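Figure-free illustration: sequence to structure, shown twice.
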Amino acid sequence: MDIWDSNLLADLRTPKRYLNDQYLAAIAGKGHGDIFNYRSIVGRLVQGAGGAGLISLPNAIVGDRSGVSPTISPSRTRVLSRRTHSTRTIDDTEIGVVDLAPAIIDGKSRPTADGTIIRELAGVLRPAVEHAIHERRLVAGSYYIPVPAQPAGRDYWITRSEAARLLWETRRDKRARLHLPLFTLIALYTGQRRSAILDLTWLQINWDRRWINFNPPGRIQTAKRRPIISVPRSLFAALRRAHARAISPFVIAYAHGDGERVGSVKNGFNSAAERAGIPNCTSHTLRHTAGTWMAQRGVPLYEIAGYLGHSEKRTTELYAHHHPDHMARARAAMESH
C-alpha cells in the first residue's frame, strides 16, 4: 500500500505527528519499511500539499560533517532556521535539502515560532535521523541539523483583578458565554495546558474524591505530562453546575445542537482579553499565572511541579524568583557580615 495515498494524506495533521506514529509502529514491527527515507517522505508531503519540492540551501546551513564542519554564526542559524525546516539527505549525485514553508508545517501563514522549530528539529528530526542511522538506513557522519537557541521564557502573568475582569468579559460573548468562562476558570485554577482542558471529559472527574485526571484513558504520558490534581472548591462548584446542564461527554462543549466539543477557544479568549485591557494575555498565560500565584503564596516548588505537570528543574527556572523564600538563606548569610 502506498503510505502517501489520498486518504492518509487527508488525515495527516503534521509531519511530526505522522513520523511519530510511524516510529512507534516501526518499533512494534508494523511500520513502513521506508519510513526514514526523508527525501521521499517530505518531498511527497510537500507535493501532496501543493507546495514546492526540493530546493538547495547554502552549505552554511547544511554541511558535510564527514569533511569540514560548517562554521556558522548563531544569528545566521537563527534567521535561516526561522525560514525553513531542513532535512539533509544524500543520493547518487547531490546533497539535497527539503524546505517546508511554515504554512505547510502548521497550516498558518505567519512565520513559525522558534519554539515550534526547536521542537520539530531537536525533538523529532534529530532522534529520527539517529534512529535511521542506528538501523543502517542512513549513512552515519553526514548529517547536520542546526537548531535555534532556546528562547528566553516570558515572565508574564496577570493579577487577580485582571483575572476577574477577564472572567467577566468571557461572559459577554453570547456564542461562548457558557464554555469560555468555564475554560478560563479551569485554566486559572488548575494551570493545565489548553489541549488538556479541551480534551477533558466528565468521566475524568472523580466527584467523590474531588480530583481530575487530565490524562485520558489510553493516552501515553509524554514530556508534556498531564497530572491528577485535587480540585479547588470554587472550581468544583462551577464544574458541578456545568455537569448538571451538560449534553456532551466533553467538559468544554457547545451548549447548542449536539453539544459538539469545542476545538479552539483562541478567538473568543483573545477578544475577551482585549476587552479586559490585557491584550497580551493568551490562554497559556493562565498556566503561568497559576504557577506564579502558587509560588507567591509560598507553595513548595516540587508541589507546583506536580500540580502543573512540570519537571522540578523547569519549575525552578520559571517560578523560584516569585517564592517568598527565594535565596532567603543566602541573603541572611550576607546580611550577617
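We now fold a second protein in the same way, so the two outputs can be compared directly.
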Amino acid sequence: MKRKRMVEIKLLSIRNKEEELRMKYTNTYRTLAEFGRKLLNKPTLAEGLPIISAYAKDVIKAERCSIFIYDADKQNFWTTISDGVDKITIPADKGIIGYTFKTKEPVLTNDAYAHPKFLAQVDKTTGYKTRNIITSPIFSSKREVIAVLQLLNKEEDFDEEDKKFMTFFSHYISGFLELSDVFLREDIKQNEVTIDE
C-alpha cells in the first residue's frame, strides 16, 4: 500500500511538471505572435535585433542575449547586441560561437569555463562573468549559417527544453535576419562611391 502511494505521488509530481512546462510554452507561443508583429514593423537589423534579444531573454530567463552575425568576407562574427558592450567581433573558428558555426548544432553548457571552446578572453575584456551558455545556429534559406543566437547566465541551469526553444526560435527569426542582411548589402552598394581612374 505504501509503495502504491509513493508511485501515485511520483506520477502526480511528473504530471505537475509536464503541466508546468506546457503552460510555460503555451504562454511563450502566445506571445510569439505579438513578437512577430513587432518585428515586422522593424525593417533593419539595428531596429530588429534589440526586439529579438529582449524576447529571447524573457522567454528563457537569461541575463544576456547576443545575436552574432556571420561576415563571410571577413570570416568572423560580430554583434552589437551584447547588453552593455558596443561591439564584439569573434573569428569564425573560435569559441563556442565558432563551434556552433562549424557543427551547425546548438551548444548547451552549464559550466562555461569548463567547456573546451569557451573564450574566457571575452569575459576578461568585457568584465562580465559567464556562468552558463546556450547557443543555436541561425540558417539561411540555403541552409547556411548566417548567425548564432547566444544566451548567457540563466539563474537555473539551461536545459533541453531551452535548447528546443532556441532551435525553434532561431528558425523563426532566420527570415528576418536573412532579408535584413540582403537589404543592408543593397544599401551599401547604393551608397558606395566608385572612382575609376
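Summary for the second example: The beta strands are 62-71, 76-79, 88-91, 107-109, 133-139, 145-154.
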